Input
Amino acid sequence: LVSKTAKAIVDLIAEGNEVVIAHGNGPQVGLDLRRAEIAHEREGLPLTPLANCVADTQGGIGYLIQQALNNRLAARGEQKAVTVVTQVEVDPKDPAFNDPSKPIGKFLSEEEAKVMAAKTGFLFKEDAGRGWRRYVASPKPQQIVELGAIRALSDSGNIVICCGGGGIPVYRTEHNHLKGAAAVIDKDFASELLAEQLDADMLIILTAVEKVAINFNKPD
Output
């Protein structure tokens, strides 16, 4: 699947387009978090912070896309795809932190959720009748920390893969240091911000659905 997508992207480049790529990580970050939970439950290892899970999946998915693109480009004597592990700054006062809305991780029974909440301090809520899951904040992206590097790499002819999974959510402390936030950023919001800040001519969102629709599943 990645190879097939890479062919379409290389075709765009062959037509003279400059391309910067962002991607999601929804299934993968949940799996990464579950691995950490199992290691915690069975071996007593520390739970991996959510921001680290986003970073891990950014690197892993970026590697697959980068390799697929460079394998396609090798036929033209080029290998210029590069992945930038990207931090995206959020506002620690974003209302989303007071109203976690994004379910992640595995489904639990109510009893299991209460035990896990007591152990970790995480918030668990019932998810659409399917069981209880951990809920995390999904704040709006404010600034792409590595924007300068992304622009420089793109301007020098590289195909940049960045902002994976919406970016690693970080916020600034009172000492102006960056710190990871226990949150996930919507990949579409992050991609829009990336396109805006790079002055892109076009933002293309590739999905598994036929088309974008307003008033979905409604008569109008």
Notes: The longest strand covers residues 102-108. The mean pLDDT is 92.
